[in-house]
Amino acid sequence: MKIEVQIDLMCTEPKIIIITNEVGDEINAIIKKLEDVQPKIIAGFKNDTVQVLEPNDIFRVYASSGKVFVETSNGDYTLNLRLYEVEQRLDNRLFLRISNSEIINLKKVKDFDLSFTGTICVSLLNGTITYASRRYVSKIKKVLGI
Hints:
By secondary structure, the chain is of the alpha+beta class. It has a single domain, classed as CATH 2.40.50.1020. 18% of the residues lie in helices and 35% in strands. It is built from three helices and ten strands; from the N terminus they run H-E-E-E-E-E-H-E-E-E-E-E-H. Strands 2-1-5-4-3-7-6 form a seven-stranded antiparallel β-sheet. The model has no long low-confidence stretch (mean pLDDT 89).
């Protein structure tokens, strides 16, 4: 993909033009990112307080008992977002969905254990052990380049 930036002193508002022979997944992803005006802030609730959470502090985000929780280096928080909404707010280069109910921070992974048949055991740097569901194994392997 080529990227070109032109400076025009007469321009009053930035304009993006995409020239392609077909609109595929990559182009749709770019358009979605450009149109995405949703705030990227994730607010966690703990003991009647609200904390703005830094993505770098997040180990994992998971759903349990109808609620969404986030595990951070500063403890666990409850979120008022659905898991797919959290996934949209997080950088997909650093965060990876490993099951229908869990997203992990790749920077906080200690190791991936592939010895389990049909699944992957994920060890996080804080000692948490979790498992990828079978339907996400091929996606995880693709991201890891294996």
